[in-house]
Amino acid sequence: xxxxxxxxxxVVLTCSLAFAFEPSPLQDFCVADPSSSARVNGLVCKDxxxxxxxxxxxxxxxxxxxxSNPVGSKVTPVTVAQIPGLNTLGISMVRIDYAPxxxxxxxxxxxxxxxxxVLKGTIDVGFVTSNPDNRLISKVLKKGDVFVFPVGxxxxxxxxxxxxxxxxxxxxxxxPGVITVANAVFGSNPAIADEVLTKAFQVDKNVVDWLQxxx
Length: 215
Ligand SMILES: *[C@@H]1O[C@H](CO)[C@@H](O)[C@H](O)[C@H]1NC(C)=O
Known about the structure:
Elements: H1 2-19, E1 73-78, E2 92-98, E3 103-108, E4 114-120, E5 123-128, E6 136-141, E7 146-149, E8 155-159, E9 165-171, E10 179-180, H2 181-186, H3 194-201, H4 205-213
Helix pairs in contact: 3-4
Bound molecules: 2-acetamido-2-deoxy-beta-D-glucopyranose.
The site of 2-acetamido-2-deoxy-beta-D-glucopyranose (NAG) has 2 residues, from loops.
């Protein structure tokens, strides 16, 4: 009996894990129809007979992003929002430009593993494993080096050089999503109660207020 319950538990767990990822497409493609008001998990397909090359293409990834901002980096996304033909295909990409010493702050993609390659510069990258270890796994990447950020884990990048740098990443979702830790925790709308943040971070209310004011 205990065995049966265990097996049932494993089956349920396996199914729920499988459902957490994008399903395999059941047709050649499902070009997103942004004008549809239907709500589905993903985007509604337009008539496949009307699909054309521009539904599957994007131009401009050779262009440098504007990194004049407080963190010194700029993400140029190429997801289903830019290429409607990515709908249901479980993949997307981004270009990231870095000013000298610019960073991509600690963040996570709730729906995607990311594989990154550096095309210019030297970039320190790392991710942190789940509780309770919270081990930092990091590496300094040079041009041509590749690194993986497993799905859901908090990760960051930092340009270690005096010059501009850039990287390209591929992500295992048409819509990977981004949760920037600092913005989510200190910049939520409305704000998370001070009592939660003072205990979570073991600091005074004025420190919490000060951090919130930055987001
Ligand atoms: C880059 O962004 C900054 C800040 O938003 C802006 O002032 C500047 O004009 C932009 N530069 C270019 C070349 O677009």
